[in-house]
Every structure is written in C-alpha cells, then in structure tokens.
Amino acid sequence: MKRPTLEAVAARAGVSRATVSRVVNGQSTVTPEIRDAVMRAVNELGYVPNSAARSLVTQRTDSIALVVSEPPTRVFSEDPLFSTVIRTASRELEAADKQVVLMLAGTPQSHARVERYIAGGHVDGVMLISMHGADPLPAAISRMGVPVVSYGRPAVAVDMPFADNDNVGGAETAVRRLLDIGRRRIATIAGPLDMIAGQDRLTGYRNALRGSSRRSIVAVGDFTRESGAIAMRQLLEDDPQLDAVFVANDLMAIGALQALRQAGRRVPDDVAMVGFDDIEAARYTEPPLTTMRQPIVEQATAMVRLLLTPPAERDTDHVILPTELVIRESA
C-alpha cells in the first residue's frame, strides 16, 4: 500500500502543501479551522510525517539525551535510583512528544563518543546524571550551546540548571535523630567524595555533630551494598564502642546491617542506624530501616521540566527539594 503524501493530505483538506507542512511541524501561523481540517485529513489518510525531512524543516530532532556517567554494571544493578530516573524522565518526555536517547558515559572512550553524538546535532537537549568530580561532559556540552540540565548539583564549577534534593539538610536530620535517641559514638558511611551527594551528606553529618562532644568517625563507600558492608567492618575495627551509624544511602545501609549481624551486634540495641533514599527494600530489612526519603520521582520530573522550559520562562534554574525522615525500627 502506497504511503500517503503531503500532497494527498493537502488535496483532501483543500489547502496548500505549505499549509499542511506548517500544521504537521507544529507552527502556530495557521487558524484553528484550517488546522482541524488538515488534522482530519491526516487521520483519514493515515499520514505519518517523515521524521528526517521534518528535522530539516524544524531544526529539531525531538530527542533528548539522558547521559549517565556510570558503567553498565552500575546503571543496570540493584540500585533503583537509575531505573526510577530513567522511567520518570521517559514518561515526562513522552508526554511532551519527545523521546529519550539513553547514553552511558562511564569511560573516557564513552565520554568522547557522547560528545561527538551531541555535537553532531542528534539531540535537542541533554540531561546529565551521576556526575563525578573530574567529569569533562558538563563543561564540554555547555560550550556546544545545547540545552543541558543536571540531576543533582554539578560536581564541577559550571553554570548549569539542576534539580537536586536537600542532601545537607537531610543528613543533618538523620544525625539529629541519632542524637535525640541518646547515641554517643555516631559514625558515618559516606558516599563517593567525588560526587556532590557524597560530599553534601558528609557535610550534613559533620554539621549535626558540630557543637557536641561527639567526634566524627568516617568510612567511605561507593553507594553499593558490598561497599557498605566493607565500610561497616572498618568502622567496627576503628571504634568497637560506636553505637550508631548514619549511612549515606540505603544500599550501603543494607550491606552495613549484614556486617553488624555477622559481628554479633544487634540493631538498634547495640548500634542504631539511619540510611538515606527510602528505597522499597528499606521496609523489608531486618530490622526495617529508618531513613531519609528523597523525592527521586519529583526530582527527575523537575529536571525534565527545567530542560523543556525556555530559560526566560523559568522561575528558577536551581530546584532543591526537601527530604523527609521515615522512622522505622533501626533507629
């Protein structure tokens, strides 16, 4: 069956080919009556615009790159952050009649590939996730003039719109919870210190202890379950008398709970614990994990809306969402 053409739609609607082109390309210089006539003809004939030709006319691809600065083993792991952000961004962009191009940039070679792809004009905008301190992509993409936003405050000094949550305030609330229940030796398992979330949550921990007689006791993980277990064992060796720990994400907290169980420490009797994220698994740990709920879906939604809103129409370029303490049995 022959594919309907622009000319066939024009003949059916009783308008010019140029008018049909303006309607299907979303231009606003057409009256509502003519637009309705053209769209009726489009639906009756089953016309589908040629995306390549349409891009030449509109200078738009209707594609948005979602760039994750992590290797596949991290993105497609048990950490629900990535799947939640990808799912939410895809849903929001689909509602705006745009599609997501998922790109992983966990190595120097993949960084170069991503830069070439974006510089080639294949996308209308870029969303950056999970950036690390030395990541060259934010500055490189900013120089290209392509609209770009970040999930989380950028880890490098670049002026870029971002959506984040209150990592510092959330960590302070978590540690205050441990102080309020009378804990004296409060340690932390920090996240990667080349990431803003890791830095900010460590800052919040230290802020909450400042002014008290407690000293900082710090081990560093990489936001994975295994690193949480290793860091917890290290903390127990460094200070066997510790009686509480703030863990910078729930996956590391799950690993830490396992290490405490293996060491014969009861939670919360011997060691109280507060995590950060409120992933679904936090409800089902033994005991259920007290944690800071961060609004992942809302943050991803805010990121997409920042990107789709012209700069002159934004109320702000920097969205910071509140976190919430969820009290369960571990603290």
Automatic annotation (TrEMBL):
Keywords: DNA-binding, Transcription, Transcription regulation
Pfam families assigned to the protein according to its UniProt record, in alphabetical order: LacI, Peripla_BP_3
Protein name: DNA-binding LacI/PurR family transcriptional regulator
HTH cro/C1-type domain ranges (all copies): 5-33
Keyword presence, Secreted: no
Superkingdom in the source lineage: Bacteria
Source organism per UniProt: Thermocatellispora tengchongensis
GO function term, MF aspect, one: transcription cis-regulatory region binding
Record bears the keyword Transcription regulation: yes
Domain HTH lacI-type: 4-58
